[in-house]
Amino acid sequence: AFGGCTKLKQVTLPPGLKSISSRAFQSCSSLTEIEIPDSVEEIGDSAFQNCGSLTEVTGGRRLKKIGYEAFEYCRKLESITLSSTIKEFSGSLIFDECDCLKTAGPSSGDYNIKIGFTGNIPDMPFANSELENVVLPEGLTELNTSAFGGCTKLKQVTLPPGLKSISSRAFQSCSSLTEIEIPDSVEEIGDSAFQNCGSLTEVTGGRRLKKIGY
Questions:
Q1: Could you count the other beta carbons within 10 Å of the beta carbon of residue 208?
Q2: Reduced DSSP (H G I as helix, E B as strand, rest coil) percent helix, strand, coil of the chain, to 5
Q3: Domain positions in the chain
Q4: What are the Cα distances from residue 58, in Å, to 80, 112, 126, 165, 189?
Q5: CATH fold for domain 1-100
Q6: pLDDT, tens digit, 9 for 90 and up, residues 103-159
Q7: Do domains 1-100 and 103-213 have the same CATH topology?
Q8: What class is the 103-213 domain?
Q9: Is residue 43 within 8 Å of residue 26, measured between CB atoms?
Q10: pLDDT of 91 over the 80 cut
Q11: pLDDT of the residue at 138
């Protein structure tokens, strides 16, 4: 729709909008902020990819799906909230090369990415992102596949009490992660969950673990 409009600085999206399709604002390099109407349920693949001046994304409280590479190369993006309604991230690289998204945590805190998920974190929301510090909110019971896989700058993770499962490849290739405390509520660690975490020196907790994967 507006892909490649390099001089586009401001966009007002209407209430009632349901979907922002693939590449809708791709390479709108002058766009600095966007408010997603709460009616929007889906953001398509590469919708805001390479919006190099984008600093803030607000709204989107009823989002259900965010597409592949949706915010890739948004190097100045500093603030986005992921609502509890999101159930699907279609592929990795959603926040790839978003250099300013360094922290993630509960919606009530001062984090670059505010995490509203309850129950479980869907597959691959943060894979290959630039995150360095993550505090996961209470109420989460499962980290799904590749939740933080390939986050090579991730140094610190706080897992919440009540977490039941760390799924396959959840922290695979998090090569800067040095230690992890597994809550005693965790019963299963999936296949390759911490594979290739080359700096990991200590794993503590996990007193009620029943299964450790391949």
A1: 12
A2: 0, 25, 75
A3: 1-100, 103-213
A4: 6, 12, 18, 30, 34
A5: 3.80.10
A6: 999 999 999 999 998 888 888 889 999 999 999 999 999 999 999 999 999 999 999
A7: yes
A8: alpha beta
A9: no
A10: no
A11: 93
